[in-house]
Each structure stands twice: as structure tokens, then as C-alpha cells.
Amino acid sequence: MQKKWFALALVPALALAACQKVDDPETSMALPEVAAPELSLDTMRDITQELSSDAYEGRAPGSAGEEKTLALLTKKFAEAGLTPGNGDSWFQDVPLVEITAKNVSDLTVKGGSQDMGFKYGSQMVVTTYQEQPKIDVTDSEMVFVGYGINAPERGWNDYEGVDVKGKTVVILVNDPDFGTESLEGEFGGRAMTYYGRWTYKYEEAARQGAAAALIIHDTAPAAYGWNVVESSWSGPQFYAQSANGGADQTKANGWIQKDVAAKIFASAGQDLEKMMAAAKNKDFKATPLGVTASMSFENDIDKMNSKNVIGVLKGKTRPDEYVLYTAHWDHLGRCKPADDGDDICNGAVDNATGTAALVALAEAHVKAGAPDRSIIFLAVTAEESGLLGSKYYADNPVYPLKQTVGGVNMDAFGMAGPAKNIVVVGKGKSELDNYLEAALEVDGRVAEAEPTPEKGYYYRSDHFSFAKLGVPMIYFEGGEDLIDGGREAGEAISKDYTENRYHGPKDEFDPEWNWDGVMADLKVYYTVARMLAMTDDWPNWNEGDEFRDIRDKSRAGS
């Protein structure tokens, strides 16, 4: 998934500081006093280096890299003083199917002013959710469906008046409000909604009966370049096992380059830019393009049980109330080679760092003694394949969600050095913001809302699997306002990571990394969860938030 790379300021005094007890009359919330201890830099550095070494082959689910990751994590969890979190086992099986496309044909488009063919990898990528050895999409009519959204509660339906059964729908990435300056609009203004995510677009295309769904890649609204699409969508793809083997899904899901889409539209006598502008309006009507698409490929199919890793620190007074830490241990395995031939996507920042943090935090919490509530340390699989491991746990919780107080998600610690701020993805959604602000108050740092809500980070990491089932989760990252160089330097480092390392073979461990911001960040993660584990409050989503009603019903036992 897409992560932005931020860094936190290192403030040595934090090690000795405590969060002041705060009584908030509006929320009736008492925040306990919690000291932030020293955490182990050696643990963070050593585990990050180990997990991202070539020996782990990119930590793909079902690989030898998974076996090594599981062995390392269980060893380190036990050494930290945790106990197995699923009865006598450290593991929760997550049933997955691995589908690897091979012998992929060109995407051929016929019926316009000229017949065209587009190459797999450089111009298009395609996969399937169906467990079929061969996929054929032949002379399928192409229909432009704008943003591919059917949202009756918003009075918006891009599929209204058109039958796309058996056809290939062409879809824009993000949602119609992309580019809006404010946070007001049909789809949250500049902030992306779930309707803007590729996962939703494929889900809706399948509900409409489409044979294939192709998203037009555009770097700004997608929030990443074509290199990320190509490396992420080629090679083995993982999906949740289903009873019908994906028979209710489209035959093919994929992406096409924007210039490819422009050529297809021009051949069909249409102007892509004008059609994109029209799709932003509620009165947009889906447009048959008068051309057909064909593509075919074979699939290697392998069913497996990947594993979530669960450790627990039992609470001393209320052990049946739970605080959750999440981080994903998986990455992409082998991917498109870099120019030097390196084809291992090591995933050092994303997310060997977050996985190492689970261990470092476990060490610190155990050393501090059992808190009142139990703390669950959950390392999930298959985040990179669509949050599959966290979704499976949320749907099949080892510890009941209605007894889960809340949680903290960790996904990619940056190495830019000290900064003055941190960034909260989804700031203002829940009362957990109060815990974070108390943890930050001692050193004068500030929590800021994400600067680019249009990129939809809230829907791209494992906290979302729990949030949509009502569990309050907070997800924050280091800031870009660096002490050395300010925002300009921070933005440059973030851009460099996204363009040159993110989801590619060069996200590798670097012995010269500056860990100062990481370790300050880690203390905040410690403090927020420790406060949750020591209070008797049950923080909720803020009034009016989309997840508030789900939580209220869960807590009421309905």
C-alpha cells in the first residue's frame, strides 16, 4: 500500500517525561500519567536489517521469506516476554490464494480509427481474482464509466443507464473531488473517500457484471508513479480464499497508462481530457467507446495458509480488555528488477521498520510491568495485497472487537532525521487524538492533519480493517518539517523515497541511516498505547464520524 515517509524530532527529555493527567469535561476522559522509557535502538536497527536482508527474499506470503520471518518474530516476542496470543500458538492462519499471471498477451483494441496493441508491464498490467487456469477476454465492448462510483446515499451513480455485463469498463483513479482545495464536496472535497480506492472500483465493476475493469493511471490522483503499479501488480498476487473461487469477480482487473487511454479514446473519436472533466459532474453519463478490448493470460494458482503473528502481554486488573498494536510483516517478494538486476523488494522502510517496532515496544512494555489492560502485538500478513491479514483478523478476531479498546498502527518509519511535527492520517476522527496530543505536549511537538488527504492514505494501511468494524484506531507518521532543512528538505526526502525506493528493490537497509526521528517516534507509540492500557475510559469515534454508529452498537452488544 502507499505510505508517505515522514520523520519525528528526537527530544532526549522525552525519556524522563510523563504525560500529565488531563480531565476533559467534554469527553469525560482522564488521561493517565505515563512515563516514556528508553527503547532499544539496537532492537530496531538489528531486526530491520535482518528482515530486509536478501536472505528473506522480500518477505512474500507463502515463501521461504515468510518462514524465516515467522521464526524470527516468535523468537523475539518470546525473548521480549510476551506469551503466545492464540491459545498455545503464536499464529493465526490466514487462507490465501496466490495467482501468478504468465504468457500475458498484449491488450488489443479494435473498432476505432485504427487497431492498437499495448504491452504488458510498460503500458498495461492485468491480473484476475478468479481461480481459473486461463483467462480470455475477447472483443469485449469498452465503456468509460467515469470514476466508477455507485453511491446512492450521495445521489451519484456512474453506472446509471448503462448495461456493462460482459463488457470492459474504463475507470478514473481517485474520486470526483480530486483537485478541490477545500474539504467540502460530494466526496469530501480534497480528501479521498473509499470510493476513490482501486479496491472499491474493482468491487463495484464486479457487482455491475463487467468482464474486465481497467483503471487509468495518473500519477497525481494515484499518488504514485507507473513504476509502483508495474512492480506491485506483476508477479504473484495474493487474495483471500473464497467459497466460489472468485467466480463473482471480473475476469480481469488492471491498469493502463494515461497516454494509452488517450490513444484509445482518440481512436474512438473521444477526447480523454474532456471526458475526464465531464466525469466530475453528477450528471455524467457512462459512454460506450465503440471499440473492443481483448486480452488473455494463463495463471499459476496455489492455495496456502499464510500467518498473522500474535503475542500478548496480559493485563493485571482487566485482562479481558485489549489494546492493539498492528504492523504488517510482509512485502512484495521478488519484483521488477532495478537497472543493476536486483529483483528483491526488500521492504526495509516498508515495513521491516514497523515490524521491528512491535518487538521494541514489547520489550519496553514488559520491562515496565503488566498494565491494567492486555496489550496485543499483531504482525499481519498480506497488507501489500489489500490488507488481507488485518481484514482476516478483524473478521475472525482472537480477542473480541467489542472488548478491544482501541489501537495504534505502525507502517513505515522514515529515516529523514528530527522534525518539529508529526502527521496524523485521519486527524479529527476519534478521541484517540487526545491521547496523542498528551503524548506530544511534553516536548512541544504538534500533531498536524495529513497535508495530502486526496491521496487516500487512510484506506491504505491495516488500521482501516479495524476502523470499518468500529474499533478506534490511530495512525500517525513522522513529520516533514525537519529541524535541519524545514519542510522543503522533508518534502524532498519524502519525494525521493516515493519515486526511487517505495515498492522497489532499492527500499534497502542503509547502515548510515539517521535513527533519531525513529526513536522519538517510537516513544510516542509507546506512550499512546500505554495510556490506553492504563485508563478505564473507552475512547470512541467523534460524533458524526462514519464509524461511530458501528462502535456504539458493538459496545451495546447489538
Tell me about this structure.
This protein is an alpha/beta fold and 558 residues long. The protein folds into 2 domains: 37-89 and 314-556, Zn peptidases (Aminopeptidase); 99-301, Glucose Oxidase, domain 1 (3-Layer(bba) Sandwich). It contains 14 helices and 23 strands. The chain has helices at residues 41-51, 64-80, 198-207, 219-222, 226-233, 258-267, 272-278, 348-368, 388-395, 432-441, 463-467, 486-500, 516-534, 548-556, and strands at 22-24, 29-31, 83-84, 91-102, 107-110, 116-118, 124-127, 134-144, 150-151, 156-157, 168-172, 212-217, 237-240, 252-257, 287-313, 318-328, 333-334, 344-345, 373-380, 404-409, 421-424, 446-449, 473-478. It has a 17-stranded mixed beta sheet that branches. α10 links the parallel β21 (421-424) and β22. The radius of gyration is 23 Å and the shape is globular. The model is unreliable at 1-27 (pLDDT under 50).
Q: What's the helix and strand layout?
A:
Elements: E1 22-24, E2 29-31, H1 41-51, H2 64-80, E3 83-84, E4 91-102, E5 107-110, E6 116-118, E7 124-127, E8 134-144, E9 150-151, E10 156-157, E11 168-172, H3 198-207, E12 212-217, H4 219-222, H5 226-233, E13 237-240, E14 252-257, H6 258-267, H7 272-278, E15 287-313, E16 318-328, E17 333-334, E18 344-345, H8 348-368, E19 373-380, H9 388-395, E20 404-409, E21 421-424, H10 432-441, E22 446-449, H11 463-467, E23 473-478, H12 486-500, H13 516-534, H14 548-556
Parallel strand pairs: 8-11, 11-12, 12-14, 16-19, 16-20, 20-23, 21-22
Antiparallel strand pairs: 1-2, 3-15, 4-13, 4-15, 5-6, 5-15, 7-14, 8-15, 9-10, 15-19, 17-18, 21-23
Helix pairs in contact: 1-8, 2-8, 8-13, 10-13
